[in-house]
Amino acid sequence: MTRTMTGGCQCGRVRYSVDLESDDAYWCHCRMCQKATGGIAAAFVQVPVASLTWESEPDWYQSSPIARRPFCSACGTPLGFDFLRQGKDIDLTVGSFDDPSAFKPVAHAGAESIHEAWLDTRDLPRHYTATTPSVAERYAEVGLGVPE
């Protein structure tokens, strides 16, 4: 069953819609993705290029001789990964979707660079943004609630 999902960058300048047939996503742990996102891995959804519509165009960074990455130059949001010569599929960052909750990881790529200690964190204490005083109080000071 195909469904249309939307997403974009943090500031809203870059937007996209994509027709998806699967909830499959994957983690890429390679050093390029770690550097590109500033995280321990990048979470991606692979989609056919033909099913993706950029409502407003992203900026592109050629991150290697074989790939480029869409991003927003205004807010810095990483939006994906694209092989230069493949042309059939593109990977979009899970976090850039408006509702990423449906996606389920099905694989690890770039496994040579996995940081094992970060994989199973279920026993760590959980702190919620809206009840973290250092965040909630700052938003209250400027007359706002904590964003979702």
Automatic annotation (TrEMBL):
Taxonomic superkingdom: Bacteria
GO molecular function per UniProt: carbon-sulfur lyase activity; metal ion binding
Pfam families: GFA
CENP-V/GFA domain boundaries: 5-112
Keywords: Lyase, Metal-binding, Zinc
Record family assignment: Belongs to the Gfa family.
PANTHER family: CENP-V_GFA DOMAIN-CONTAINING PROTEIN-RELATED (PTHR33337:SF40), GFA DOMAIN-CONTAINING PROTEIN (PTHR33337)
Name of this protein: CENP-V/GFA domain-containing protein
The organism of origin for this protein: Novosphingobium kunmingense
